[in-house]
């Protein structure tokens, strides 16, 4: 099995590319989706989050917007939240690997891969990338997004150029969906072969 991480800065089209890999039969572990499930109605993180951040949960699960506002810019609060969330995600990831142990390739959709040093724990890294103007237009079209919020998010993320430099494969998303899908299929063929050396000591 090859473990492959998919990452990219905000607005780069990572979710679209992850879905393309899934369409091609590659098992995909989405860390964000796992967190949403664990924080949703009846989720396993509701009780510990409520204990650490009173008033942030209800029948619909965690109030993600309120919780995000509570930890945004507060390093100590963010660390408390991460101490709750990260072990639960790690357990879900282990279960995913066990379930797909026979798969030749598994893909981990990890937004903050380089920022957390996770690139060192996988066999290969795929970065999705787009022209900065395309990225900005996509993000600013999202509800509740503003230029200053985008700037703050980008300040916490490894620059796109550095991510591309650290990638084994770069998939463009400022092109047609057909071109991006072709790049995904090329990546799968590449990863299925014996041509990865940088991370395997060759």
What would you note in describing this structure?
- The protein is α/β, with parallel strands linked by helices.
- The protein folds into two domains: 119 residues, P-loop containing nucleotide triphosphate hydrolases (Rossmann fold, 3-Layer(aba) Sandwich), CATH 3.40.50.300; 58 residues, no CATH class.
- The protein has nine helices and seven strands.
- The strands form two sheets. The protein has a five-stranded parallel β-sheet, sandwiched between helices.
- Strand 3 and strand 4 form a beta hairpin.
- Helix 2 packs across helix 5.
- The C terminus is likely disordered.
Taking pLDDT < 50 over at least 5 consecutive residues as the criterion, the unreliable ranges are 195-202
Largest sheet: 5 strands, parallel
Report Rg.
Answer: 18 Å
Q: Please state how the strands of the largest beta sheet are arranged side by side.
A: 2-5-1-6-7
Q: State the fourth-level CATH superfamily of the largest domain.
A: P-loop containing nucleotide triphosphate hydrolases
Q: Spell the H/E element sequence.
A: EHEHHEEHHEEHHHEH
- Classified by CATH, the class of the largest domain is Alpha Beta
Shape: globular
Helix share bin: 40-55%
């Amino acid at each position: 099995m090859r473990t492959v991480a998919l990452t990219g800065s905000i607005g780069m089209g990572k979710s679209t590319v992850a879905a393309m890999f899934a369409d091609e039969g590659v098992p995909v572990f989405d860390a964000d989706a796992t967190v949403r499930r664990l924080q949703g109605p009846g989720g396993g993180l509701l009780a510990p989050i409520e204990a650490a951040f009173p008033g942030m949960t209800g029948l619909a699960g965690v109030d993600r917007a309120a919780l995000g506002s509570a930890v945004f810019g507060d390093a100590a609060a963010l660390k408390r939240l991460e101490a709750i969330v990260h072990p639960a995600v790690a357990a879900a990831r282990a279960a995913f690997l066990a379930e797909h142990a026979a798969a030749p390739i598994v893909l981990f959709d990890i937004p903050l891969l380089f920022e957390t040093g996770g690139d060192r724990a996988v066999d290969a890294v795929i970065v999705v990338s787009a022209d900065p103007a395309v990225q900005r237009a996509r993000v600013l079209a999202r509800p509740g997004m503003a230029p200053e919020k985008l700037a703050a998010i980008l300040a916490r993320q490894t620059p796109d150029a550095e991510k591309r430099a650290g990638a084994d494969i770069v998939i463009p998303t400022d092109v047609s969906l057909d071109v991006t899908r072709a790049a995904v299929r090329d990546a799968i063929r590449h990863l299925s072969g014996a041509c990865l050396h940088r991370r395997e000591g060759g």
